[in-house]
What we know:
The structure is a homodimer. With about 240 residues, chain A is an alpha+beta fold.
Amino acid sequence: MERVIASGSCVADGAASLTELDNEMHRESGSKSSSGRKHRLSAHEVLFYEGDRADRIYEVLDGVMMLYKLLPDGRRQVVYVLRAGDMLGFTNHDTFDCTAEALTAVELQVYETREVATSPLLQHYVNRCLLSQMEHLHEHTVLLGRKSAMERVATFLMSLVPDRGGANCAGPANRDAPDMRSVVLSMTRQEIADYLGLTIETVSRVISQLKRKGLIKVEKQDSIHIQNVCGICQLTGMH
Amino acid sequence: MERVIASGSCVADGAASLTELDNEMHRESGSKSSSGRKHRLSAHEVLFYEGDRADRIYEVLDGVMMLYKLLPDGRRQVVYVLRAGDMLGFTNHDTFDCTAEALTAVELQVYETREVATSPLLQHYVNRCLLSQMEHLHEHTVLLGRKSAMERVATFLMSLVPDRGGANCAGPANRDAPDMRSVVLSMTRQEIADYLGLTIETVSRVISQLKRKGLIKVEKQDSIHIQNVCGICQLTGMH
DNA sequence: CCTGTTCTTTGTTTCAAATCAAAAAATGTG
DNA sequence: CACATTTTTTGATTTGAAACAAAGAACAGG
């Protein structure tokens, strides 16, 4: 992945299949009138660029996306990671303030802006998403402003453990044996680094440290087995 | 100011005077039915603590407030600075996720949660605020994750220059001679440090550097004369 | 106006993470 | 499956900001 400092260009239009029924992933208010189109992205495809005209909002039905911003010299900061149920694309202005890129293959529900304005149900759901994102951003602000590299990585890992790091966790995942969980990162080391405000080398080193301490086991690059959830949790700086 | 790691306790109830008319500071949709109460805080008074039950939301009519979070060991991160027109207190849950403290004397408009639910006008305004805060948090995330100390302070100063750092700037302020502006910080060095993810010493040193370079002049502790807006702007990392 | 307190600045030292460099794994492709 | 490419890991060194320390300014209150 080259770190181009591009901008402009827009949605890579894909198969806009009119899909069956609203998936039951919504924790909130059952069905949300499945009038809209669906949109599919493959991994690392860009949905929209910062500065593009904003005319629709999206709900992640499946897969993982990220929002990021670039500085002119190429430094990147991932500002948000979106998973099933999360919404993206809302803005105060008529342009997007971040670039949205798929981390994995992604399925999206597409809503027109006016569609949101007319549906109170949808509006309510969008609002819930906004508030939940805001809260998460507050938490992430603390991470970036005040936590050590080890604390950042530990916090990141905990956020992937179902029912431990808030709502935003990776898929179904196994919650069988206590203190023995597997999490799927869905991000490269570089993406994790750009999310946690670190370098790729530091992320790698911290993961190695945790491995050496026996707290985690790296199954695949992308998949980490957390041997000791409590141990990791102690390292987040929050306990 | 001692850095207590307290929590609990609640709103220091003050003079809930029923005030005249809606102030005309609202850029949005003229009058917002001035049914509500007003609330006044003096500098460094806490409006609510993280974890307190959330039952009302507030609009800053005058003065400056901050939202912050504490880690158990006392590290603090200021996650947002609120000025006239900004709203605070909305949450996904029934508790606040941050502590809200006045940086200066503050006047607030108080809205009951149900009040917001019933007024479409108010709801619309709250939404605009949410989106604008979100956008600002994204920008601040980049600052905390990727910018140097110098870039952080320069960005902070620019945010206080009217019509240069987005909406969130200090009061009316003078926009007379080009390239000659005075900004009021409304924050101590410690508060700035906790906002920018730095230490008080680093903030002080960077300000001294800017002083030596002749880009700024410190009038009072709290008030900085920006001699060369372009110069500071070049240092934000965004140009 | 003096006096204690708090806040800010400046100097010195330390350290965690960045940078630079290169080997080792993993991944993809003809 | 061998080869080229990308990603990750590990090592050595540098560096920017933190931590520690202390002097100097600003401020509050009697």
